[in-house]
Amino acid sequence: MVFRTFAGHIFSAFLASILLGLSLNLQAADPVTLQLKWHHQFQFAGYYAAIEKGFFAEEGLDVTLLERDPEQNNILQVLNGQADYGIADSALFLYQSHKVGVRVVAPIFQHSPNVLITLKSSGIQSPQDLVGKRVRFYQNDAEGFSIMAMLAEYRILEQGVIRQPFSTDFNVLLNGETDAIYGYSTNEPFVLRQKGADIHILNPVNYGIDMYGDMLFTTSREIETNYARVEAMRRAVIKGWQYALDNKAEIAQLIIDKYSTNKSFDALMYEANGIEQVVARFTVPIGTIDRGRLQHISKLFARQGLLDMEFSIDKNIYNRSDSNAGEINLSSEEQAYIANNKTIRVGVDRSWYPFDFINNKGQHDGMAADYLALLSQRLGLTFEVERDADWPSVLRLMQKGQLDMLVMAANTPERSVYASFTRPYIRSPMVVVTDQAIDFLDGANDLQGKKVAVVTDYASHEWLKAHHPEINLVQVDSTADGLRKTALGEVFAFVDNLASVSFLIKQEGLVNLKISGQLPYSFDLAMGVRNDETLLRGILQKGLDSITPQQQAEIYEKWVRLEYDTRVDYSKVLPAFIGISIILFLVILYTLRLRTFHGRLQEAEEALIEKNAELEKLSITDKLTGAFNRHKLDASLQDLIVVSHRYGRDLSIILFDLDYFKHVNDQYGHQTGDEVLRVFSGLVKQTVRKSDVFGRWGGEEFLLICPETNLKQALDLANKIRLLISSYQFKEGFYQNVSCGVTNLKPDQTADQLISYCDKLLYEAKNTGRDRAVTDSE
Questions:
Q1: Average model confidence (pLDDT) for the chain?
Q2: Is the pLDDT of residue 11 over 70?
């Protein structure tokens, strides 16, 4: 009885100690509230992953996510203490300029997905088309700051738009109740296209407004009083986003099961792939703040009056030390593994250029080989490459445990049965390859109705088949096969990853091909390790994490922009070369006297041809700017008008006049005036196509002739050039503006009539405020 009582006391004490420990652990978890920017969706996938996978818990944080109330200002909710942290876009800079104590912790989206959406039938193709139109947009200043910046930069706000209250019912666009509506490039296009809508997207990025998107932020008070918690929050969020983007399908299903059923699995996956693009984690690490970019953004906002003062970086971002970057902190268990397993058996793809291949010397080569070399140096491991097996055989050897790892592979459901994968370390965008004559393609919509080659069962095939059934897909067996069909004109375009097509275009000598566009998808490649080698996977991941973005970029650029060595190995041909040289020497010696006279005559003739070429160039070139002169412009315009009238082709012209140019000469001198003319000419020549004809019309006037260009395209080009010169700061500190007249050729119109009418439009531009482009319709 005494023993039982004693045992009971011991058990009770033991149980109490466990409960006390649990209680202390529960108390140790620091409660944190995070205010989301919108309703639950993949936009916040990293935060769901940080909760579900225990990344917050590992940092001692108990995080509660607060779904957005659209009637509330989510930035003010954090400032007012209703939440500890929040998510917002570049509107944060506006609040920072008013010194209210908001601080950026980590930008998650390197690019903003904020866009305006219109129907193609509306004819609204550029920001200028929004003047006088109805635009549904948020009424508060916490949303869509990049949209506001675009409208301000292009003076749309100044000229006037009809601003309507935002509605989550996008049927108002389909029903004609509005002309343009605010949305996310990762969400609404999918919904609208599912409804059969033919839409056009106005993305600020395409108009030079490239802002940060979703950013984790908090208050100055939080950073001053809970610095360690801020750092812990940042670490957990970045881990969460890395996991979410590596496991998109898993997190999409998690959202449906636990957070929201408002979006289908397909819609969430569409959003996930779009989020991958704006996060841009393979370009810069997640959470990176670029100081130079912030300076550029702040100057843009200040110029448009959106900020009352220039943005102060040091006072408005969360400063943290990255002194440990590049270090590899291996555990004692991992160090022991390396000591006992110096050689790792590696499976490679023998012919996957330029990622992973065996070269003609029998050596492992490509991007994968460069990464293995870095890891071998940093980890002290020796990688033994299987050179003889083809890719299907490599996968079988991996399944049987006869290989330890795959150096570069996609994480597929089939492979995940026998292998676990690191985070992807190579991302190659999906691009569109066409003939050189094709202009830039703005996404998959420009491929509608065209024959487009794709490699069977590649990600490009599956993505286009699922999302763009209107494209006529032609299946091919390999990347090289697809490129050859495009080069021969059998298909309009070929879609594959950037690295492979760039490498093979050069290797195969397909000089008539070029990359004409990019699609919102990428190929994500990782290292795969046998499932029973969990320690090796962790070691490799730490090694990959230690490779800096600069080193990653150097490897990628080395292979994507590969230059080939075409020098001959003279040691192999030297004996024959000597024998032939002796014979040639005797022949040359015998005929030398006869050829001397002809040589002198040829030299004189070549000199005459060269002089004539120089004279011809001088006769059509403006000496100061290097652009064409009035004589050349007159001749080219006459020729292009004949072609346009004969074949019914579009032809547009732009007449430029540098504003207040006399003031520049008077205040800064004629040398500075000449520099302004040269700079403007250089900016235009860098911007226009080879088929366009640009020259100096006279004085400070310039003419640009644009064949195969309609009026709207010419207006967009004029405004692009206008903004380029107006943003260029000359060394004397001033900026130069330009006025533009823009018109297109009418039936039976002569060159003189065309120029005269364009000159009237230019005169109108100068009389209505300057620094603008005026077209027929204005």
A1: 81
A2: no
The continuous run of DSSP H or E covering 293 comes out as helix 291-303
Residue whose C-alpha is closest to residue 154's, from 204, 196, 192 = 204
pLDDT, one tens digit per residue, over 384-418 is 999 999 888 898 999 999 999 999 887 767 788 89
Q: Are 467 and 528 in contact (CB under 8 A)?
A: no
Residues with a catalytic annotation lie at 700
**Paired strand residues for 474:** 453
Q: What is the pLDDT of residues 721-732, one digit of tens each?
A: 999 999 899 999
For residue 472, what is the enclosing H or E element?
strand 472-476
Tokens of 347: 């499976």
Could you give the CA distance from residue 78 to residue 222 in angstroms, rounded to a whole number?
10
Alpha-carbon span 459 to 409, nearest angstrom: 13
- Can you name the residues that pair with 341 across neighbouring β-strands? none
Rounded Cα distance, 144 and 91, in Å = 7
Asked if 237 contacts 106 with a C-beta cutoff of 8 angstroms, the reply is yes
CA distance 55 to 238: 9
Give the pLDDT confidence score for residue 596 in this predicted structure.
Answer: 52
Residues 488 and 506: their CA atoms lie apart, in Å, by 16
Q: At what angle do helices 498-508 and 549-560 cross, to 10 degrees?
A: 30
Which of 684, 691, 687 is CA-nearest to residue 649?
691
pTM: 0.47
- Which helix (H) or strand (E) segment is 405 a member of? strand 405-409
| HEC readout, 27-91 | HHCEEEEEECCCCCCHHHHHHHHHHHCCHHHHCCEEEEEECCCCCCCHHHHHHCCCCCEEEECCH
Distance of alpha carbon 106 from the chain centroid? 19
- The amino acid at 363: Q
Using alpha carbons, select from 170, 177, 175 the residue that is nearest to residue 193: 170
How many angstroms separate the CA atoms of 743 and 762, rounded? 10
Within its chain, how far is the Cα of 333 from the centroid? 40
